[in-house]
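Case 321 in the screening queue. Each case pairs one protein sequence with one candidate compound; here the compound is zinc ion. For every case the pipeline is the same: read the inputs, emit a complex structure as tokens, and attach any notable structural observations.

Predict complex for case 321.
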Amino acid sequence: MTTALSILWACFDSAEPQFSYREVHSWPEANRKWLLESGVLVESGAATSIACPTCPDAHVEEVLELPDSTPPRFFIPCPEEVRVEIALEHLRQWTVDMDAVAAIIARALTLAGGVRVVSPGRLWRLGTTKLGATSREVVLMRRQNGEDGASVAAHIGQTGRPIVLFAGGEPAASIWPGRTPACIALPRVMSHNGVSLEANALLLHELVSRADDLQSQLHAVPIDPKGKKLIVRRQLKAELASHLDDSNLVAAYRQHGSMRKAAKALTSERGTPVTKDTVARAVARAGGAKAVMNVEDSESVGRSVASHRRDRGKNMDRYRN
Ligand SMILES: [Zn+2]
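Case 321 output:
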């Protein structure tokens, strides 16, 4: 079930992940079934524009309804076929229910205390886990490297040494008001057994201990900034060497804004060649280039009226916080 998880992790930091009928039905049956039945994917209203199903270049066109037809019939203009009829079924599209994802992760980790939304769409308190003699709070964070990352991070608080789970790019050290908490990439500790999401609690605890150790090293002895940088870089290199999955590829694309630049940066960062096609495939799995960039208010191909409405709701939520 790596596909289902790689789809989920890759779109994790997308502002508004949107999957078309065609995309969802290109996934292996078992993956699609789990994503839908677990509630990770939820239907998000009919698409108002769609890629042409008959042309190889899949040009995207606005969907037009034939006036006065019962049942309703839909078409798109096409330079080849003049117009192409689209079945109502093919206008269906899906988005990711992040609250459902938060609940699934908390359940997989058998956390105590229940899930609570702190900042809608961005931050959840998932519960607590026992680590040795102490109880540690686990939070889930999304789009932590967005412009308002620091203000979202500020909600976490400094007490109780929280564990921060994320799936997109590694949170930048600058977003934390004080000591950097233990930040763990979900793809490293989560797997899928074909039926449900499973967590490797042992590995999670080990990674948390390692992150704790790094922080005490950084804070125990007064080291010069150069030495500090060296410790962090060594740790980061070890982390990077251990996984290059969709979320890293998408994060690089988001940072550099082009497939070619992202591939170049990843290649020099890792010392092994990463092609722009590898980046492009990961971006496609994440719902496409538009979905992965943090474009919130501009027009975006393939988004429904319903999703625009939801966008506005989200923005207002953000201003309230
Ligand atoms: Zn066409």
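Case 321 observations:
- Residues 52, 54-55, 59, 78, 80-81, 84 surround zinc ion (CB under 6 Å).
- Residues 201-220 form the longest helix (20 residues).
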